[in-house]
Design goal:
The chain is mainly beta. It has one domain (8-85): SH3 type barrels, CATH 2.30.30. The protein has one helix spanning 50-56, and strands at residues 8-12, 18-23, 36-44, 68-78, 82-85. It has a five-stranded antiparallel β-sheet with strand order 4-3-2-1-5, with no helix packed on it. Strand 1 (8-12) and strand 2 (18-23) form a beta hairpin.
């Protein structure tokens, strides 16, 4: 996989869970399955606490399965967990 800053990717979680992350790593190189990449996590409506959703407001334009909350939560993600680049 080639890391491109700003791209979004679908990441495998436990079981059938998948997550969405944006690459914030500044390296642009071909990455092996042993590498990690720095990402910023996005959250689906059902992954956000009710208290936070009330503060933001209940805005549903596309439906809860299609909408994402942007976050500033960053950490490293193993490349072996990446299912695909999101389009």
């Amino acid at each position: 996989m080639e890391s491109r800053r700003g791209e979004f990717m679908i990441v495998k979680g436990e079981g059938d869970d998948t997550y969405v992350a944006q690459i914030v790593d500044k390296r642009r190189k071909l990455l092996s399955v042993l590498d990690t990449v720095k990402v910023r996590w996005m959250y689906r409506v059902n992954e956000v606490e009710e208290k936070v959703r009330r503060q933001v407001g209940n805005i549903e334009l596309l439906g809860p399965e299609l909408e994402l909350f942007f976050s500033w939560h960053e950490d490293s993600c193993p490349i072996r967990s990446v299912l695909r680049v999101a389009r």
